[in-house]
Amino acid sequence: MSGKRSEDAYGEKVDRCLYNALSKFVVGVGVGIVTAVVVRYKPWPIILGAGIGTGMGISDCNYEFKSGSLTNVVKQSLEGKRKKLAFEAQKKEPSYDEESREAERKERLAGVVGRASHIKYYDD
Length: 124
Prior knowledge:
mainly alpha, flat, transmembrane, MICOS complex subunit MIC10, membrane, Mic10
């Protein structure tokens, strides 16, 4: 039999989750230490950084276990955006070339197209 056992796949997810959470915790504490030095050695930036890192790690673990893998979520999101952009590109009108844009600009400046061109003036 080829393939992974479900226990192995679950173990890999747990390992990835723990590594990810630990690394985000350490980075959060590191940023907190740097910030604590800036604000004259107060402890709250370290605690805040640790909390933010832990929260981000827990959030990523939820994504990992609920929707397969965080990388799969990103891939699916990017694929959806590509399809949307391709669809919108098909709907777009053809773009004007430079000559027609210049002609339209000159007409606007001349007052032919734009403001008050629909008003007719009569002699009194």
